[in-house]
Batch of 3 targets.
Target 1
Amino acid sequence: MKKHNFSAGPSILAPEVIDNTAKAVKDLNGIGLSIMEISHRGKDFQAVIDETVALFKELLNIPQGYHVLFLGGGASMQFCMVPYNLLALKAAYLETGSWAKKAIKEAKLFGSVDVVGSSADNNFNYIPRGYMIPEDADYFHITTNNTIFGTQIKEDIDSPIPLVADMSSDIFSRPVDVSKYGIIYGGAQKNLGPAGVTFVIVREDLLGKVSRQIPTMLDYRTHIEQGSMFNPPPCLPIYVCLETLRWIKNLGGLEKMQQRNEEKAQILYDEIERNNLFEGTAEELSRSLMNVCFVMNPDYKDLEKDFLEFATERNMIGVKGHRSVGGFRASIYNAMPIDSVKALVDAMQEFEKKHA
C-alpha cells in the first residue's frame, strides 16, 4: 500500500534514488563491493565524491573561489563552526525560528551577536522586514526555511557583509545566486539525501582571518585541503546525495524544481484557504514552499485528533505538526509527488463533508 510521506525529516526520497542506492549497497558499479564497504580513499569512492561536487557546482552554478564540503555533525555543528571560523568581534543574525535561535546561542560563545530582526513576537509566523544589517559585523546569518513554523526567505538577500545561510530544508528547491553568499550549509535529510552528511559551500577568501586557534576538525581549511577526506566521510549518505543530484538534473534542474514546488504548494495553500475546517499559520508573504503548516479552525478545534486519524487511515504519515506548535504540517520537499499533495487535499475535502 502506497504511503504518502509528509515527514519533515529525515524525509521523502525519489523512488529511483532509493532503487539506485539499493543496487549500489549490493554492488557499486559492478565492482563486486558495496558502497558501504569500499575505502573512502580508493578510486571508486573518489569518483563518487568528484561527481557529487561537480553536480553541486553545475546545478547551483557555483562561481570560482568556492569549495563544496561534506562533513558530519549536521547543521547543528555548523552553528558552532561558522562563528569559530568567521566571528572575530561581532556577527549579525536574523531570528526566524527554533533553528535560528540555536545558531544565535552558539555564536554568542565566540563574540557579540546583534539580532537585527525577529519574528518571535508572533510565534515566528512571518519573516522580518525592514531590518538593518550592520556593516561592522563579520557576517550576517539567516535561516532560509523554517520547518517548524512554515516560513521561508525565497530571495537572495543583498548584504553589505558576508552572508551565511542555513539552507538545510530548501537547498536545491530553487535557483540560488551563490555569489551573494559567503557560506551556505545544511543537513542533507530534507531535499538532498538521508541523515548523516552535512554539505557546506564556503568561499575560501573568508577563512583564516580570526586570531583564535581553531581545532583541526572544526577548521574549514582542514576539509578544503583534504577534499572532505580528513577522516572517513559518511560514504553511503554522500552516494544518496549523488543519486538525488542526478535525479534533479534529469528532471530539468532547479528552474524545473522551483516550478514543481510552487505548483504543489499552491494546490495545498488554496485548499487551506477554501476549507472552513482549516487555517494557515504563516503570513501569506512568508509562506514556505517546503513546509505547509496549518491548524483547525477554532470552531472545530476538537476535531484535530480525528483528522490526524483520518489522514493516517488514508496512508498519510508525518502530517502532525511539530510538538512545540501543534496542528498540522505537510512537508512537500522536492521528492514529494504532486499526486500525494492532491491526495491530502482530497482527504481534507472528504473530512470537511463529513464534519462541516
Target 2
Amino acid sequence: MAKRSVEDLDVAGKRVLMRVDFNVPQDKEDPSVITDDSRIRKALKTIRYIREKGAKLILMSHLGRPKGEIVDKLRMDPVAKRLSELLGVQVKKLDDCIGPQVEKAVSQMKGGDVVLLENVRFHAAEKSKDAAEMMAFARELAKLGDVYVSDAFGTVHRAHASVAGVPQILTDAAAGYLLLKEIKYLGKVLRSPEHPLVLILGGAKVSDKIQVIENMLDKVDKILIGGGMCYTFLKARGKGIGGSLFEKDSLDFAKSLLKQAEEKGVEVVLPVDHVVGRELDEDTETDVQRDSIEDGWMGLDIGPKTCNLFSDKLADARMVVWNGPVGVFEMAPFAKGTRAIAEVLAASSATTIIGGGDTAAAVDMMGLADRMSHVSTGGGASLEFLEGKELPGIAALPEA
C-alpha cells in the first residue's frame, strides 16, 4: 500500500497536473461564498512544496454535481479566489479544463505559477462508465502535464478520468502529503492496529456500514454503536424503539453480527438510555428514556448514562476509529452525545482516527479536529478503505 511520494518526483521546471478535492460547501443564497475552506487548506502543504520546487502547477477538481453540463453556480471561480488568498499569490482560473485555449494558457506559465482548471465534471466523460470515453477525456487532461500528483483522497474511490485515468497516461506520478497521511493512518488500522482497538459507529443506516463491520470484526476488540443505526440493533435484542429509525432489511444482519461478535469475543456496546423527541425537529418536545423507547417518541441522541458508558469503554483504548455521529448533532438538543464522544477522544492518548463526512464535520464544528490524530477528508473513500476495497485512484499510483 506504500505509494510513491511527491518528494520522490523531479518536478523542477515541469508542469505538474494535480488532482485536488476542492468540492467545498457554498452558501445556498450566494454560491460565491465558501462556507468551509478546510479542503482547500488541507491541500496547501503539497501545493507549497511543488511551487517551492519551481514547478508549474495545474490544479483540477470537481465541485458539486453538474451532471456533465455547465452550471454557472458550480464554476471554480470562488475556489480560485480563496486559494489565491491562502497562498498569497494569484491563482488564475481557466474557463475550461481541456482544449486549445487551456493548452495555450498552460504553455505560457512560469515556474511557481498556479492555475485552476474549470470544474472537470462539466464534461460527462469525467464520470463516464464507458472506459474508452473516460480514457479519451483523461488523455486530453494529460496533455497539460509532465507529471501527475494526486492529493484528493475524497475522490480516490471513484474510477473517474482525472482520478484513475490520468495516472495511467502520466505514469511519472505520486501521492501528495494529504493522500499519504490518509493511507498511513487508515492502512495502519487494517494491517497493524494497536490494541485495544475500538470502533465507534453511528450515522443513520446499518446498511451503509455492513461491509466495514464485516471487514473489521476480526480486528477490533469493542464496537460502540450509536446514531440512527443503533435502533436496528436494539430491536434485534428485543428492545422497544418507539418511532425511531429502523431498517427492517438489516435486522437479520444485526442479529447475525451480535452472534458473531459474541463468538469472537468482541464486545458490542449499545445505548442504555436515549434523548428522545416527538419528531425530528430542533423545537420538539424532548425526554430522556432508559432501556426501551416508548411509542410516540423517537431516539435522536444517546443519553447521559450511555455517554458515561461509552467513555468507560474507551478508557483503555490504544486506537479508536470513529465513523458516524451518535446523534443528530446539527440540532442543539441532540448534539450532547456526539460532543461527549469527541471530548473523550480529544483528551485520549490513543491514536484517534475520525472518518470523513458528518463525523469530520462534527469534530470540526466543535473545535476539536486539531486534537485528533487524524481526521479523514473523505467520507465515502474512508468507508471503502476500511471495507478493504481497492480504491481506483490509489491503485493507479506507483508503489514506493
Target 3
Amino acid sequence: MLDLRETPVPDVIDHCSAALSIDLDIENPAFGWGGKSIGCGTDRGTWVKILFRPAGQINERMWTGEECASVLTGVSKPQLLGSVRWLDATRNLVWRADETTRVESPAISSTPEIHEEPQNLSGEWWNTLRGSLIALAGTKTTRVAVRQDLINRRIREYAGTAVDPTVDEWLPAHADIHWANLTAPNMVLLDWEGWGLGPRGLDGATLWAFSLLVPAVAARAFDLFADDLSCRSGTLARLFMCAELIRMTRNFDDHPDLAEPLIREADRLVIELAGAK
C-alpha cells in the first residue's frame, strides 16, 4: 500500500493544485494514519487534504462522507469549500482532494490514544464537544458508519454467546472520535469520511476507550456522555469498541499500551451485559 510519508507524488500535487487553482505548502505537510493521506496549507489560507483508495475499493461510506457532512449544522467542524476526484490508472488508485477552512488549533494528540492528561481542555471545550454530538445525533441520514453484523462479529469473537449483541438504538455518529481528530484549545472535530448511523453512545464510547490510559480523562468522557453510555446500546458500544481495539492490538500491533485496560474493561462489560441478558 502506498505510504505518502515515504513516497513523493508530485504528479498528484500538481493535479490537485491545477484542479483547485491553488498553491500548496508542500514543505510543511501533515500526514494521516499510515501515510494514507496528506494535508497542506494553501496560498489562500485554507487547508487541503489529499487521500487515495484502490480503484476497486471505492464505496459510498468512505468516499462521500465529507460532502454529506458539509450540510450539518450545530457541529464544530471545518467547512468544505471545494473537492476534486480523479482516477489514477497508472497506480490503479482513485484520488480525492478536499479544500476546507483552516483550523488554527492543533490536534490534541499525534495518536488516537493519549498517555497524559491534556492541559488545555476547558469546560467550554467539553461543552462544545457535547453540543456538537447532540446536534449530530439529531440529524437524519441514510449513511451507516457501523453495521450490526460487524458488532455481532466483534462481540462474539470476544465474548462468545455470553452477550446478545443486538443494538436497539441507532443514531448518527462521527464514528472516529479520538484524540488525533480533536483540536484544542478550540474544539473542532476533524475527518468526516466515515460518519453515519451507529449504536447510540458510539462516539462517547470511542473517546472513552482511547482515554483509558488516563483514568481521569476517561471518567470525564464517561460522565459527559453518561446518559448514552449507561443505556444498553451504549454499553454494547463500549464493549464493541474494546473488542475492536483489542483486535487491532493483537493483529496489527496498533495502540499496544491500551491492551491491558481494554481487556480489563471488556471483561467487566461482558459480565455486566451477560447478567442483564
